[in-house]
């Protein structure tokens, strides 16, 4: 309640919005909340959410990367060409694609930070350039199917029931252990640890959510490996942002670059590193998308992918103004975006309506962010 009074709405709007979206689509089409559709929904969310994790880091700097969609398509094309045409093992082709994404992000980050060119302009140029590069990489074939079982398994593997429950137990134990360790450290440092009841309530909610998710997913094929990959990225980058010096530097640069510079932080170095990480995550998302579709073509990374990954981060609660947000917003926001798309597909609505509704949801999220930001500024002045 204190955070809400200060204008920090956090993830509350996206949670309420997700409940409403699921309730509406379930009312209009009962098939929406079936285990089969929700399992497919989880798999569809993986690629968008993975790319959006990188976008969250960029937005925390107060910058933007418009090239991530095309970077994901280009890196998927590189993987496909190396694996199919040149016979490289799947792991080496995937590693090469991820390295290419990191190199692209490194170049764009250097161009933006060192040459003082706005990130909007640099990445907009990248959007066009990497789209052309994808056409060059694929050549005259235009489409490459992916017959390699290792690549296909990334989005086509589902855990057996017992393995899913084992993962769920590990997640709950890890959350409980992390919470207890944090409370002990804060108590040792003579800091406020908050009421134990709040922590227990959070643990109970997590147990209920994990159990419900496992029951639903095991009701069809099981927990998708692609979903675990996305959650693994979210956990890793959340730790990076919240628990490491590098993460604190990202937040500091996003909050005030000049103040961060005066504090001795290498602002340009942080910016280059973040854009490189965004390129890596775009490549990982491209690999997951190609694995789900079992092919790479000239439209890979195009269409509404860029809109979706940016919208996912913003809808999830990451501020466009920098310095505030969470990596988990990429996951929750992507779930909202894909739920809208999936639900409208079930209803047979045309693409035009999908674009209009997605744009309206994005505008609503940005409006909430802007209102909350002005509210915090007014509170600070008072």
Give the structure's gist in a few sentences.
With 382 residues, the protein is mainly alpha-helical. It has helices spanning 2-5, 12-28, 35-60, 68-85, 90-114, 119-138, 149-156, 161-188, 196-218, 225-243, 245-255, 257-262, 267-293, 305-315, 328-346, 351-381; strands spanning 143-145, 295-297.
Keywords:
382 residues; 16 helices; 2% strand
Structure overview:
The protein is mostly helical and 382 residues long. Helix content is 77%, strand content 2%. Strands 1-2 form a two-stranded antiparallel sheet. Helix 5 (90-114) packs antiparallel against helix 6. It starts with a helix and ends with a helix.
Structural class: mainly alpha
In the predicted model, the low-confidence regions spanning at least 5 consecutive residues are none
Beta-strand segment tally: 2
* Mean pLDDT level: 87
Straight-line N-to-C gap: 19 Å
Helix content: over 70%
- Basic shape: globular
From the alpha carbons, calculate the radius of gyration and give it in angstroms: 21 Å
Strand order of the largest sheet: 1-2
- The helix-strand sequence is HHHHHHEHHHHHHHEHHH
Number of helices: 16
What about the largest sheet? 2 strands, antiparallel
Question: Approximately what portion of the residues adopt beta-strand conformation?
Answer: under 5%
Summarize the SSE layout with pairings:
Layout: H1 2-5, H2 12-28, H3 35-60, H4 68-85, H5 90-114, H6 119-138, E1 143-145, H7 149-156, H8 161-188, H9 196-218, H10 225-243, H11 245-255, H12 257-262, H13 267-293, E2 295-297, H14 305-315, H15 328-346, H16 351-381
Antiparallel strand pairs: 1-2
Helix pairs in contact: 2-15, 3-10, 3-13, 3-14, 3-15, 4-5, 4-6, 4-13, 5-6, 5-13, 7-13, 8-9, 10-11, 11-13, 14-15, 14-16
């Amino acid at each position: 309640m204190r955070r809400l009074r200060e204008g920090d709405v956090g993830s509350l709007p996206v949670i309420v919005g997700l409940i409403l979206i699921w309730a509406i689509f379930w009312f209009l089409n009962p098939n929406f909340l079936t285990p089969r559709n929700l399992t497919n929904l989880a798999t569809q969310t993986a690629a968008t959410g993975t790319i959006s994790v990188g976008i969250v880091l960029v937005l925390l700097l107060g910058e933007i990367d418009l090239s991530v969609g095309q970077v994901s398509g280009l890196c998927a094309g590189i993987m496909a060409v190396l694996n199919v045409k040149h016979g490289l093992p799947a792991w080496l082709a995937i590693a090469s694609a991820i390295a290419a994404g990191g190199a692209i992000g490194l170049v764009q980050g250097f161009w933006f930070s060192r040459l003082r060119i706005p990130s909007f302009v640099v990445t907009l140029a990248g959007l066009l350039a990497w789209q052309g590069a994808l056409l060059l990489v694929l050549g005259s074939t235009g489409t490459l199917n992916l017959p390699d079982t290792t690549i296909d398994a990334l989005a086509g593997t589902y855990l057996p029931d017992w393995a899913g429950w084992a993962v769920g137990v590990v997640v709950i134990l890890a959350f409980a252990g992390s919470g207890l360790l944090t409370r002990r450290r804060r108590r040792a440092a003579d800091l406020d640890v908050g009421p134990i009841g709040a922590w227990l309530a959070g643990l109970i909610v997590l147990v209920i959510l994990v159990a419900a998710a496992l029951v639903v997913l095991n009701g069809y094929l099981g927990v998708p490996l692609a979903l675990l990959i996305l959650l693994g990225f979210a956990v890793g980058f959340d730790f990076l942002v919240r628990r490491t010096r590098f993460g604190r530097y990202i937040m500091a640069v996003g909050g005030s670059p000049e103040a961060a510079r005066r504090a001795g932080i290498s602002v340009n170095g942080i910016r280059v590193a973040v854009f490189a990480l965004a390129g890596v995550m775009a490549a990982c998302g491209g690999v997951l998308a190609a694995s789900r579709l079992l092919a790479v073509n000239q439209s890979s990374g195009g269409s509404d992918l860029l809109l979706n990954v940016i919208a996912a981060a913003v809808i999830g609660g990451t501020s466009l103004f920098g310095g505030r947000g969470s990596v988990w917003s990429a996951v929750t926001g992507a779930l909202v975006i894909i739920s809208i798309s999936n639900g409208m597909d079930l209803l047979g609505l045309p693409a035009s309506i999908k674009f209009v509704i997605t744009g309206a949801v994005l505008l609503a999220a940005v409006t909430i962010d802007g209102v909350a930001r002005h509210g915090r500024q007014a509170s600070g002045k008072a």
